[in-house]
Amino acid sequence: MRDCAGLEADSGIRVLFRGVRNQDEMFEEASTGAFDIACPTTDRLASWYGAGLIRHVNDQRVGFDGIETTFHADAQTLIEGRRYGSPNLWGGAGIGYDPTVVSFDADRASLMDLFDPAYAGRLAMREDTAMVAAGRALEASNALPFPFDDSYRSEARMRANYDVVVRFLIGRRRHVARFWFSEDEAIEAFASRACAIGYNWDTTIGALRKRGLPYMFMAPAEGANCYLQNFVVAAAAPPGTAEDWIAWVNTPRGGALYASAYGAFSPVRGARAYMASEDRAFLEAAYPPEALRDLWWQPTQPLWFVRNREIYARQYVASGAD
Question: Which residue ranges form the domains of the chain, and what is each CATH number?
Fold first, then answer.
């Protein structure tokens, strides 16, 4: 745990923060331990609800009308007529690269460029999201038996698509210099100079640039894989203080401070005006107007999907073992 002192001073609410490496670990922690607020991504809300981990929130009390309508995500945050998630951060996965090593047309870069033999041995990948990068690249090449989004709607279609995807990735397994799972691991993969290109979060590149390293982030032609993180309130937690905290984050200043603490972007209306100039510049460079129009929002990942995805990911990683 660590004390979020800066946010506490502004909000007047004491918050103890426990960091986890990824969404799977967050779900496991919430399933076995006490919490008041957690932050699953929109595609995971149905799983949290199905496991009985969360209670609904009051739109008025949390100031939900402060969130830009683009980010309401009602199809996921509303479950059986009640709100279970209040969006607090958004960001995306795309192409991170070192412009002193990687050369391609920035206006036409594709996810398929990640697998260019020119960068073999310099690629950074996360084993599960590699499936998304490869799957969407193959879909653009008409190489999948079904639309990639069908992978989230039908287990049979998911397996048919992922059989193709994992064969493609295994054939390029030696391209990968580093697999990463957490943000810190992704940062180290690039900071070590082992990797020159990768499929990674925008926040990774933002953190590297703050270290003075020359990395760039690009939303690919297929659209950045966009994630929306949400506050959820534990089923056993009293709603009062938790919802007051969410309401503070849903103000322009609160949203900007919270997003800055994470190096991500706020969905709150007016928060951009409170961003540090370097953060605002990075946001506008990473997501020019055309990129914002082409965002690919991560579909809901049912439990059967997550289970099967992990099997394919293990096959991918293990294929490089000596």
Answer: 2-90+226-287 (3.40.190.10), 92-224+299-318 (3.40.190.10)
Please give the pLDDT value at position 5: 57
Residues 6+ away with beta carbon under 8 Å from 272: 256, 266, 280, 283
Tell me the pLDDT band of 3, cut-offs 50, 70 and 90: very low
Query: Any residues with CB less than 8 A from the CB of 193 and at least 6 apart, and which?
Result: none
Chain position carrying tokens 């969360």: 54
How confident is the model over 73-93, as pLDDT tens digits? 999 999 999 999 999 999 999
For the chain, first and last CA: distance in Å? Answer: 39
DSSP 104: -
SS3 for 76?
Answer: helix
Give the alpha-carbon dihedral of 182, 184, 187, 191, to 10 degrees: -140
Using the structure block, give the residue that is written with the tokens 């032609």.
221
Segments in the chain forming alpha helices (H): 5-11, 23-32, 45-50, 74-77, 129-140, 155-170, 183-191, 202-210, 239-249, 252-262, 277-286, 289-293, 303-318
Question: What pLDDT digit, counting tens, does each position of 161-187 carry?
Answer: 999 999 999 999 999 999 998 889 999
How many other β-carbons are positioned within 10 Å of the β-carbon of residue 284? 12
User: Which uninterrupted H or E stretch holds 234?
Assistant: strand 225-234
As a whole number of angstroms, the distance between CA 76 and CA 86 comes to 10
Question: β-strand 16-17 against 82-83: which pairing, if any?
Answer: unpaired
Residue 259 CA to its chain's centroid (Å): 14
d(CA 219, CA 288): 9
pLDDT in tens, 201-260: 999 999 999 899 999 999 999 999 998 999 999 998 887 889 999 999 999 999 999 998
Mean pLDDT of the chain: 91
Could you give the C-alpha distances from 74 to 154, 205, 248, in angstroms and in order? Answer: 22, 30, 21
